[in-house]
Amino acid sequence: MEQEKSKGYVFAICQDAEDPYICGALHVERDDQAIPWSCETDEEAARAAERDGVKLLYGIPYVEDGVYLDTPENRQLLGSYSRDVQRTLINRKSPRKGYDR
Question: What pTM value is reported for the model?
Answer without folding.
Answer: 0.80
